[in-house]
Amino acid sequence: MLDYDAEARHYDTTRGGEPRAEAAARAVERLLPPDGRTVLDVACGTGIVTAHLLRPGRTVLGIDRAPAMLRLAARRLPGAVLRADATRLPLRTGTVDAVAMVWLLHLLPDAAPVLAEARRVLRPGGVLITTVDKEDAYFTAPSDLAEAMAALRRRHAPQAADGAARLTAQAAALGLRPAAGAEFPGLGQGRSPRAWREAVAKGRIPWCRATADAATAVRALAALPDQDAPRPDPRYRLLAFRG
Predict the structure, then answer these.
(1) Which of 46, 63, 130, 225 fits a disulfide with 101 by CB distance 3.0 to 4.6 angstroms?
(2) Taking residues 9-32, what's their average pLDDT?
(3) Does 154 fall in a domain?
(4) Does a structural domain hold residue 222?
(5) Contact predicate 81/54, CB 8 Å
């Protein structure tokens, strides 16, 4: 996993900045309960998405465990950020209307403990919103990149902790049922073959650590033309679950 304290200073500029954050927040907003007055953003990072969820009459709280990230988030959300782990939220049971988790679960070996803790703090009828299938977002349209990664994805993508089917089953076990979905563009986040090759080779893709399949994908990626040309921006997915 990345050292998010080290990444904090450059995080926003290398992740699409305000345009992507605004797109993400608009998608989250569409899934929030219309009468929801309290929103918890788990793994809020620099607060760049969280700040766009602020509305008159709504309390928004950001949680993260990286101090450097929280220092930046505190500038956007004065007095409304806390340092905590997603598996031990510092809130009472049944006290928030919505929990949002954007780009968190794909980093974990298993999302179940985080889902359970989010479920605990939700009020009856509350909504849990999370990104799903993050890595698949880069391969939604046919492309040379998708073809090069196809065999690796078929074998290893089911291990991703943010897989929609896997999360839906885990949520059901907690009494959370699917409610709605949304998409938003990862503006400026299309990766080149070289960037994907380096990510796979260095084990940065959580569901495909060094394996024979990964080595095959690296060779296929290396054979693609235009090694430094970014491919189309991904389309990220959100799912909402209601308690």
Answers:
(1) 130
(2) 88
(3) no
(4) no
(5) no
